[in-house]
């Protein structure tokens, strides 16, 4: 049960200390008031709220610090309000929240004559290195509304302090995975003065050498698209702004693809996104913590079965898929690849992608029955999968009847519109559908029921960002694109009822909890470098690995082998690197080679997938994380994860023409390895031992080659 205490403290009080009752003295969160300062304190963190300025400073036990934090809002009537412009700031309540982290919420109210009060809700975990801030408007200001609300804003020469001598970087996280957007970790020294460096939902500010830094990001995703703007001058961070309501410029090729401003949010109670602010000795731990906190707020859509393996038709055949090719690919997986270990002991999904309508109703029903009848002696079974775009319409026939609505609605009725009633422009060639329209809701329920009745067990849903666009929604209670997206995805998840595996393809990173898996990146094929390549996908793993397990199963997209498939791997070396990239992403592996009729693709698949040792690692379903975070918009070359006896180390040479030696100091794998005498190495793919190393692992890789190494410390 929550414990709530209402208090009214004035700055005239000389000193009051409140101890919030928790399990032990070590885990207490305290608050105290002095003449012009409110202090909130946990074991790892101290927040000093300056009642003369309306700003707060946060300092951690390791000396890292953020100074001058305020909250602000731009009301829809043009007024701009900021806590720093108010005259009194009062700590008015605290609430000990239930939960294992011992979180306490404090509410500080800012008041000034002629201005609506601003309420800042500050939550502190008893024994965690993070806190959160949320701004709330009073009833009068909430009725006016806003499309830009700053939960956290700070500025100044010493606003951000990491470690002495730190060479800071800042991370750009894309809103979604469309249009081959990339994550980008840029050195602060190289950023343009006066120009904002932006990120969506979350960022990390850190020193790669020491790995120390901050993680800052939104942890609720019901209403707002959250942006982070970083301002730099003279090689230093001078400003940081985290706000709900991603701003102009807009356009279909911008991060959110919006052509309209963020919706105005109004009502009885308007709040900003809740923003987590954490200081961490290792920025990677910080992002994993951020993911876990998000999962606690909105749990992931758990899948009880193993991580999927199988085949997908897109890169192999695209619009040339047909009945014979679909079943021919399935037969090759069953007869040739499965005995080698591909999918052994799992469910093997044979998935139709776009253009599955090239199979007529009789062919589709027969194909589904044939797939379901496939079995292996070890119990491996086969299941069919299919594809759908619930929020995008691909025809220019706007008078077509919406399926499942019994003729009540035409597509022109359910398409998302601008406030003047005009249709929004196409994105990726598809017109956005309004997820809140009753015709669209009926369409979702009908289509999902059809897929279930036909026997499909896997559904790839694509172009979901169309459903998060800003517009004039049918449901008047829905004011923003994210609210609409939540409503539509709730319908899909409810209809799937955890019986159909939901794989989100092109989709916003947040909100999560509606898909079992989400693609790490946009379309990825088989080349080692270039567009749609292994390197491109691993850029998303380098800075987005933390989504795996916390938010979704990470989907590395299909493994494409053979030059007759779209950008398929051209040789065994390149193909094995693409396979390893999928294994270290958590082990979800969907081939998309021309297995029905391409001799080169079939032979490459036979050679690439003939490795039970690698599949054993994949079957563990565990993601690797990067060793370095200084790669800009490129992928890291080295990834690592712990094992029961040491570590797995994955190395990649992204150069398709030249050999390369990759050096990894043992202490960069884990600081505890500074004290070991050396390490024994094993090539996982071959099972063969390699020379032991002392201090640094140096591995030579041929052009396009990768290697998975087991590292066992010697003490």
TrEMBL record:
One of its GO terms (biological process) is carbohydrate metabolic process. Residues 1-25 form the signal peptide. GO terms for molecular function: hydrolase activity, hydrolyzing O-glycosyl compounds. Keywords: Glycosidase, Hydrolase, Signal. Belongs to the glycosyl hydrolase 27 family. PANTHER family: ALPHA-GALACTOSIDASE MEL1, ALPHA-GALACTOSIDASE/ALPHA-N-ACETYLGALACTOSAMINIDASE. This is Alpha-galactosidase.
């Amino acid at each position: 049960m929550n414990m709530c205490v209402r208090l009214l403290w004035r700055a005239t009080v000389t000193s009051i200390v409140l101890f919030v009752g928790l399990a032990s003295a070590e885990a207490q969160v305290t608050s105290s008031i002095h003449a012009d300062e409110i202090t909130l304190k946990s074991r790892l963190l101290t927040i000093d709220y300056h009642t003369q300025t309306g700003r707060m400073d946060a300092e951690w036990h390791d000396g890292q610090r953020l100074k001058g934090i305020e909250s602000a809002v731009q009301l829809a009537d043009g007024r701009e309000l900021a806590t720093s412009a108010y005259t009194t700031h009062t700590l008015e309540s605290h609430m000990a929240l239930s939960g294992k982290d011992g979180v306490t919420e404090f509410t500080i109210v800012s008041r000034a004559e002629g201005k609506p009060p601003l309420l800042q809700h500050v939550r502190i975990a008893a024994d965690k290195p993070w806190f959160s801030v949320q701004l709330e408007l009073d009833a009068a200001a909430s009725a006016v509304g806003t499309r830009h609300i700053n939960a956290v804003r700070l500025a100044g020469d010493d606003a951000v302090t990491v470690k002495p001598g730190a060479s800071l970087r800042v991370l750009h996280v894309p809103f979604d995975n469309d249009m081959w957007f990339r994550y980008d970790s840029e050195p602060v020294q190289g950023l343009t003065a006066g120009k904002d460096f932006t990120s969506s939902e979350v960022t990390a500010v850190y020193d790669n050498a020491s790995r120390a830094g901050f993680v800052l990001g939104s942890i609720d995703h019901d209403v707002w698209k959250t942006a982070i703007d970083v301002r730099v001058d003279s090689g230093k961070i001078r400003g940081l702004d985290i706000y709900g309501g991603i701003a102009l410029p807009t356009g279909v090729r911008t991060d959110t693809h919006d052509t309209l401003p963020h919706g105005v949010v109004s009502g009885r109670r308007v709040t900003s996104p809740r923003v987590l602010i954490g200081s961490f000795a290792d920025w990677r731990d910080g992002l994993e913590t951020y993911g876990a906190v998000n999962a606690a707020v909105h749990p992931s859509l758990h899948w009880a079965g193993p991580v999927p393996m199988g085949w997908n038709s897109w890169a192999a055949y695209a619009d040339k898929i047909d009945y014979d090719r679909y079943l021919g690919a399935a037969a090759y997986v069953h007869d040739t690849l499965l005995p080698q270990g591909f999918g052994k002991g799992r469910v093997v999904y044979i998935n139709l992608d776009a253009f599955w309508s090239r199979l007529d109703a009789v062919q589709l029903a027969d194909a589904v029955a044939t797939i379901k009848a496939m079995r292996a002696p070890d119990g491996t079974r086969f299941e069919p999968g299919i594809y759908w775009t619930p929020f995008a319409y691909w025809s220019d026939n706007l008078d077509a009847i919406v399926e499942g609505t019994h003729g009540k609605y035409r597509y022109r009725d359910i398409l998302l519109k601008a406030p003047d009633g005009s249709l929004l422009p196409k994105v990726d060639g598809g017109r956005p559908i309004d997820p809140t329209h009753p015709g669209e809701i009926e369409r979702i329920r009908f289509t999902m029921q059809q897929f279930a009745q036909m026997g499909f067990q896997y559904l790839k849903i694509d172009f979901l960002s169309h459903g998060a666009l800003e517009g004039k929604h049918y449901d008047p209670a829905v004011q923003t694109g994210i609210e609409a997206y939540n409503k539509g995805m709730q319908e899909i998840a409810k209809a799937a009822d955890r019986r159909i595996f939901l794989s989100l393809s092109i989709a916003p990173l947040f909100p999560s909890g509606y898909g079992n898996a989400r693609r790490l990146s946009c379309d990825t094929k088989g080349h080692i470098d270039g567009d749609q390549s292994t390197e491109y996908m691993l850029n998303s793993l380098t800075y987005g690995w933390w989504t795996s397990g916390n938010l979704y199963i990470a989907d590395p997209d299909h493994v494409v082998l053979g030059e007759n498939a779209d950008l398929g791997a051209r040789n065994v070396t390149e193909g094995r690197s693409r396979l390893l990239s999928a294994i270290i992403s958590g082990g979800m592996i969907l081939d998309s080679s021309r297995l029905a009729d391409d001799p080169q693709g079939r032979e490459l698949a036979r050679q690439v997938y003939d490795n039970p040792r690698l599949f054993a690692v994949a079957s563990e379903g565990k993601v690797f994380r990067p060793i370095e975070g200084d790669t800009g918009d490129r992928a890291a070359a080295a990834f690592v994860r712990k094992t029961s006896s040491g570590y797995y180390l994955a190395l990649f040479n992204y150069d398709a023409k030249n050999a390369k030696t990759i050096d990894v100091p043992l202490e960069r794998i884990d600081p505890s390895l500074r004290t070991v005498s050396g390490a024994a190495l094993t090539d996982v793919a071959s099972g063969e031992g390699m020379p032991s190393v002392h201090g640094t692992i140096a591995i030579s890789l041929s052009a396009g080659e990768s290697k998975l190494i087991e590292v066992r410390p010697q003490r």
